[in-house]
Amino acid sequence: MSLDTTILRWLSLHRTPALTTVARVAMDAGMSNTVIAAAGVVGLVVVAAKRWWWQGITIAASVVAAQSAARALKHMIHRERPPMDVSVVHVGAFSMPSTVAAMTAAVAVTAYSVLPWPAEHRRWVGGVIAALLVCIGIAMVYLGAHWPTDVLAGWGLGAAVAGIVMMVARVASRRVRKSAAPASGILDTPDVATRVHSSGRLPGNRPPGP
Hints:
By secondary structure, this protein is an all-alpha fold. The chain has one domain (3-188). The chain has helices at residues 3-13, 17-31, 33-50, 53-77, 99-114, 122-142, 148-188, 190-199. Residues 189-204 have low confidence and may be disordered.
């Protein structure tokens, strides 16, 4: 008997109504389209209010990339879901890696890395994010929606995808800043700035003829 099967069978023998209810809530938080849409709207409002455009784009790209990668791997691996005799919920499609685990890991890693958290709060923010991630993962295994290794694979995939997306975002951000540097450098020169302010045009630009 594999470790995956041993863990699921042990959990199936120790489920309680209260724990099952809590696990369902945690799993729904990670899978519900309504919850995901609400989180997206809140995130968009925060991004617009704070003008965190690069951060918002990076987080969104990580989620989409993690979801796409997980779905592609599912069809390559073809692993079946846990059997019905050890499951409380029955989900279709293939099992490994967990798409929810991949997406939540991608969000967690990217949000923790790119958002400007205050230095004194970073430790507890990281702890809260990690705790939420683990709770959702455990809930999916407890309910029999996934094998334990499905969730572990999803976390690893999500973290890896987040790292790649953040690396690409940093390179793109540097290129944008470099391309904007020459123009800003001209305007930042004191003499040029004075003449632009007084004349309304850059040096060397002649006024239009009559």
